[in-house]
Design brief:
The protein is an alpha/beta fold and 460 residues long. It folds into three domains: 39 residues; 208 residues, P-loop containing nucleotide triphosphate hydrolases (Rossmann fold), CATH 3.40.50; 174 residues, Ribosomal Protein S5, domain 2. The protein contains ten helices and 23 strands. A nine-stranded mixed β-sheet has the order 8-7-9-10-6-11-12-13-14. It has a seven-stranded mixed β-sheet with strand order 17-18-16-15-19-22-23. It is globular and about 80 Å long. The termini are far apart. The chain binds thymidine-5'-diphosphate and magnesium ion (MG).
Length: 460
C-alpha cells in the first residue's frame, strides 16, 4: 500500500511545509497553511513510476509556424483584453472577487461565441443548471446554443468533453469547486485545484479547445487562490471593480500570446455587462470644472489612452501627524511628490492633511500621473482652480525635473478628441502632433508648474 504522505500547504501561494505553522514564510499570509494528504497530487512531487519512458521527437527551432489562431467573440472589450481574441488550445484564468461578475461576463462571452457559430460548453460547478439558465435569460442569451454541464469532478468533465468532440471553448466556473479522484485532499485545497487545472490544461493542449478557468480571489486564504495556478496557464486576467461603482475592468496581467497591461472596460447593468468603448467619458463623468484641486490626467492603459480626473484636498491639520489618504494611486508615490514639492518648490504641506482621490474609483499605476497630482495639490492649496480644458502628464524625478513619458502624441490626441484645448507636459517630449488645435505648455522643472498653477491664470 502506498505510504500516506501528509504535507502542510499554504492555500494562498502553494508553499509546502513539513509541519504546521501560523504564518507562511513564502507569502507572509497568516493562517493559510492547511494539512493535506498530498499522495498522488502535484505537491507530492514526481511520482516514482514503473513505466519506461518512450522517446519523443526532437524538432528544429526553425520549423513551420503560424500566427496563433484566434476566435473572436465580437465583444470588443473582451477581445481587446485577450489580445485580439481567444487563442485556440490556450488556457486562460479569469480571477476576481466573488460577486464581481465573472460568471456574467463569461456567459455573455460564451453566448456571443455560440452566436458566431462556435461550439461552447459551459461547466458550472457552483450553480445548478436552473440558476445558469435563469442568468442566461436575464442576459437575453437564453436562445444561444451554449451547452451546459453541472459537474465538479475533473475525470467526469474530461470524459464528457471527449465525447463532445472538440468544442471551440470550454468555460470552467470555478476552479475552486474542481476535484479529482487522483488527489486525495479535500476539494478547494491547493492540491485539488492544481491537479484539476493541470488535467484541463493538458486537455486544452491536446484537443485545441480553449479553456477559460474562473477563480475566486479570497483574502482569507481558506480556499486556494488562483495565484497557485497563475504560472500554469497561458493568460491571466483579473476582473475588478470598486464597491459602489457600476463599472468593471478586465485587466490582463499575463498573456503568452499578446500584450499585458491591456484593459477592457464594462458597466454592470440590470441586463448584464455593457461595453464601455470610451472609458474617458465614464471616468470624467460629472466634473465640477470650477473647483480647485482637480486636474485631468491624460493616462495610458495598455495601448489605449484614458483620461481621468485626479482630485486633491489639502487642509490644515489638527493632528500631530497629518493625515495622508490616497484612493486609486500609490501612497509612496504621493509621499515622493510631496517631498519634491517641499524640497524644490517651497510648497510646505508638513502641517496639512492631504487627501488624494482618482475619480470614479479608477486605479492608476503610471508614474506619468505625477505632474497631474502635483497640479491638483498646488491648486487645492492655493485655492485657484485649474483651467477646465487642460490636461496634465509627466513623471517627476527626485531632483525636481519633469521627465518625458511615452505616448505623448496619443495622450494629446485623446484629450483633443474630448474637447480639451490646453496641455501641460514635459519639455522635449517626442512625437508631438503639430499644427493641432491644442495649446502645449512644456515644463522642464516642477517649480515652473507650481508658478503657473499658483498664478491662477494661464495655468494649463
Ligand atoms: P456574478 O456573475 O454571479 O459574479 P461572480 O461569478 O464573479 O461571483 O455576478 C453577480 C452580481 O452581478 C450580482 O450581485 C448581481 C449582479 N448582476 C447584475 O447587476 N446584472 C445582471 O444582469 C447580472 C446577471 C448580475
Ligand atoms: Mg460565479
Amino acid at each position: 500500500m502506498a505510504k500516506q504522505k501528509i504535507s502542510f500547504i499554504c492555500q494562498s501561494c502553494g508553499a509546502v511545509y513539513q509541519r504546521w505553522q501560523g504564518k507562511c514564510e513564502a507569502c507572509g499570509e497568516w493562517n493559510t497553511i492547511v494539512e493535506e494528504n498530498a499522495a498522488g497530487g502535484i505537491a507530492g512531487g514526481p511520482q516514482r513510476s514503473r513505466r519506461k519512458g518512450t522517446p519523443s521527437a526532437l524538432l528544429p527551432l526553425s520549423g513551420e509556424s503560424e500566427e496563433a489562431p484566434r476566435i473572436v467573440s465580437g465583444i470588443g472589450e473582451l477581445d481587446r483584453a485577450l489580445g485580439g481574441g481567444i487563442v485556440r488550445g490556450s488556457a486562460i484564468l479569469i480571477g476576481g472577487d466573488p460577486g464581481i461578475g465573472k460568471s456574467t461576463l463569461l456567459m455573455q462571452g460564451a453566448a456571443a461565441l455560440a452566436d458566431r457559430g462556435h461550439s461552447v460548453i459551459y461547466v458550472s460547478g457552483e450553480e445548478a443548471i436552473a440558476q445558469v439558465r435563469l442568468r442566461a435569460h436575464r442576459l437575453q442569451a437564453a436562445q444561444s446554443r451554449v451547452l451546459l454541464m453541472a459537474e465538479t469532478n475533473v475525470e467526469d468533465i474530461l470524459a464528457t468533453l471527449a465525447d463532445a468532440g472538440r468544442p471551440d471553448l470550454v468555460v470552467i466556473d470555478s476552479i475552486q469547486t474542481l476535484w479529482s479522484d487522483l488527489a486525495e485532499s479535500a476539494p478547494g485545497t491547493v492540491t485539488q485545484v492544481r491537479a484539476g487545472v493541470q488535467a484541463l490544461i493538458r486537455f486544452a493542449k491536446a484537443s485545441g479547445s480553449a479553456v477559460i478557468l474562473v477563480g475566486h480571489v479570497t483574502k482569507e486564504g481558506q480556499i486556494a487562490g488562483p495565484r497557485v495556478v497563475e504560472h500554469m496557464v497561458d493568460a491571466v486576467l483579473y476582473f475588478e471593480g470598486e464597491g459602489g461603482h457600476h463599472y468593471r475592468i478586465l485587466r490582463t496581467v499575463k498573456n503568452r500570446f499578446g500584450p499585458t497591461d491591456e484593459i477592457g472596460v464594462f458597466e454592470m447593468s440590470d441586463i448584464g455587462l455593457r461595453e464601455v468603448s470610451n472609458p474617458s467619458e465614464l471616468f470624467l463623468g460629472e466634473r465640477n470644472d470650477k473647483a480647485p484641486g482637480a486636474a485631468v490626467f491624460a493616462g495610458m492603459e495598455g495601448t489605449r489612452p484614458v483620461l481621468v480626473e485626479i482630485q486633491a484636498l489639502v487642509a490644515p491639520s489638527s493632528l500631530g501627524t497629518p493625515r495622508r489618504a490616497v484612493v486609486g494611486w500609490d501612497s509612496a508615490r504621493l509621499a515622493m511628490v510631496l517631498a519634491v514639492l517641499d524640497a524644490h518648490c517651497g510648497v510646505r504641506l508638513g502641517s496639512h492633511d492631504v487627501y488624494l482621490n482618482v475619480a470614479g474609483g479608477f486605479r492608476i499605476s503610471e508614474p506619468a500621473a505625477d505632474l497631474a497630482v502635483a497640479a491638483a495639490l498646488v491648486s487645492s492649496l492655493s485655492g485657484a482652480a485649474l483651467p477646465s480644458d487642460g490636461v496634465y502628464f509627466g513623471e517627476i524625478s527626485l531632483s525636481g525635473a519633469v521627465r518625458p513619458v511615452a505616448h505623448a502624441g496619443q495622450r494629446l490626441k485623446e484629450a483633443e478628441k474630448l474637447g480639451f484645448r490646453r496641455s501641460v507636459l514635459p519639455a522635449s517630449s517626442a512625437e508631438l502632433p503639430r499644427g493641432r488645435d491644442m495649446r502645449v505648455d512644456e515644463v522642464s522643472v516642477l517649480p515652473d508648474l507650481v508658478a503657473k498653477v499658483a498664478a491662477g491664470r494661464d495655468a494649463a
